[in-house]
């Protein structure tokens, strides 16, 4: 395959075949890899512009009913100290953050049945009534009717990483979850009019380049509004405790390829890539990413939301995060967005380039 021609195709239209994707994922010579990352950056500039979106992440409960083999919040982990924020605490924090100029709040938790559909709907309604903010939910798989209720309550977006587009790999990672249900949830969310975020981990045990190509093909075919891509990081209290973590290089290649095939999706420079490398997020911003999600979970809970160890920004106070994140964005020659950062794929809502 001719790399020059292929990179031209990446920049012109991103119409990549599976063979193209596998070939690009396998690049290992430093200068070839950096050409691919630069192609991701060029597509980002042309299709998304220079502004970086800031999303305020609130991790409101670390209780989880699931047994995902990689995640520190998994139900069988008895070493973790569990917490739940009350609805009032969540609403007050979201409204406070909006007052600080943040125009998207992401409410994330484990799959915690304590929060009924009505409780979450009420939280969304109260936030929307008091703050000029987009609300993103990230609370896992739920019945169609819950998603519908929350949309009617005013939720704008939903993050549900597909985790692994390959059915067999999905099964190895999730002993008690169903691949078809995850995919069904993503389709429901789209049907209901949410801006939908998918995403995957890079470098999980058993994952091959072919599996990663499945993820890129999934992004190409599903065209999510958002896609979160981060390295797998081994957690000591999970079945995957003594396995290797994902690498910065492969994660960056995945970010660049996701940019190339989705063109204008919102792609975060994830906390996970910032956790395995000091400048990981900056590098992701220069390989196609255009979103950052600083953690605004109250400090007293933050270190307990340990999906993986050595998470970034575990003890910084919110004011510090605020300015640190802005400086990091500016250091890459980019600007900080001041709008709500809606999907560019939904006509009439996003920037639509
Ligand atoms: N319960 C919610 C939120 C899960 S936590 C849901 O199901 O969507 C958010 C994301 O963290 C997950 O989707 C997963 O991709 C990522 N994650 C979990 N454990 C991880 C680990 N050990 N390393 C890297 N990422 C991890």
Short description:
The protein is of the alpha/beta class and 353 residues long. The chain has helices spanning 3-12, 18-25, 30-48, 87-99, 117-130, 144-153, 167-173, 179-191, 209-222, 248-262, 271-276, 280-285, 299-302, 318-331, and strands at residues 51-54, 56-61, 104-109, 134-138, 157-159, 195-202, 226-231, 291-292, 335-336.
Structure description:
The chain is of the alpha/beta class. The protein has helices at 3-12, 18-25, 30-48, 87-99, 117-130, 144-153, 167-173, 179-191, 209-222, 248-262, 271-276, 280-285, 299-302, 318-331; strands at 51-54, 56-61, 104-109, 134-138, 157-159, 195-202, 226-231, 291-292, 335-336. The protein has a 6-stranded parallel β-sheet with strand order 2-3-4-5-6-7. Helix 9 links the parallel strand 6 (195-202) and strand 7. The mean pLDDT is 96.
The CATH topology assignment is: TIM Barrel
**CATH H level, superfamily name:** Aldolase class I
How would a textbook summarize the main sheet?
6 strands, parallel
Number of helices: 14
- Round the Cα radius of gyration to an integer and report it: 19 Å
Order of H and E elements: HHHEEHEHEHEHHEHEHHHEHHE
Task: Write out the distinct hetero groups bound to the structure.
Answer: S-adenosyl-L-homocysteine
Q: Please identify the oligomeric state.
A: single chain
The chain-level structural class is: alpha/beta
> In total, how many domains does the architecture comprise?
1
Shape: globular
Strand content: 5-15%
Highest-level CATH class: Alpha Beta
The average pLDDT score comes to 96
Helix content: 40-55%
Arrangement of strands in the largest sheet: 2-3-4-5-6-7
């Amino acid at each position: 395959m001719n790399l020059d021609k292929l990179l031209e195709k990446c920049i012109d239209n991103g119409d990549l075949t599976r063979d193209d994707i596998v070939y690009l994922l396998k690049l290992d010579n430093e200068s070839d890899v950096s050409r691919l990352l630069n192609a991701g950056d060029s597509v980002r500039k042309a299709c998304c512009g220079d502004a970086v979106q800031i999303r305020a992440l609130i991790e409101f409960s670390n209780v989880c009913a699931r047994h995902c083999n990689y995640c520190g919040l998994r139900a069988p982990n008895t070493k973790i100290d569990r917490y739940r924020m009350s609805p009032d605490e969540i609403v007050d924090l979201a409204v406070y953050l909006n007052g600080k100029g943040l125009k998207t709040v992401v409410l994330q938790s484990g799959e915690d049945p304590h929060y009924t559909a009505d409780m979450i709907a009420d939280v969304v309604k109260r936030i929307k009534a008091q703050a000029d903010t987009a609300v993103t939910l990230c609370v896992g798989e739920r019945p169609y009717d819950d998603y519908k209720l929350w949309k009617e309550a005013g939720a704008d977006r939903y993050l549900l990483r597909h985790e692994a587009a390959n059915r067999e790999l999905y099964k190895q990672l999730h002993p008690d979850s169903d691949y078809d249900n995850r995919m069904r949830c993503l389709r429901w969310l789209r049907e209901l009019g949410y801006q939908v975020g998918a995403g995957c981990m890079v470098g999980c045990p058993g994952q091959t380049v072919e599996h990663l190509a499945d993820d890129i093909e999934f992004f190409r075919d599903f065209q999510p509004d958002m896609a979160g891509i981060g390295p797998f990081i081994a957690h000591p209290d999970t079945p995957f405790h003594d396995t290797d973590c994902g690498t910065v290089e492969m994660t960056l290649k995945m970010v660049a390829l996701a940019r190339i095939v989705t063109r204008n999706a919102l792609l975060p420079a994830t906390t996970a890539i910032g956790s395995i490398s000091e400048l990981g997020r900056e590098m992701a911003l220069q390989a196609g990413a255009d979103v950052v999600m600083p953690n605004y979970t109250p400090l007293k809970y933050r270190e307990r939301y340990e999906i993986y160890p050595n998470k970034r920004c575990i003890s910084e106070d919110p004011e510090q995060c605020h300015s640190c994140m802005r400086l990091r964005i500016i250091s890459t020659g980019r600007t900080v967005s001041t709008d709500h950062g809606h999907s560019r794929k939904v006509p009439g809502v996003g920037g639509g380039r």
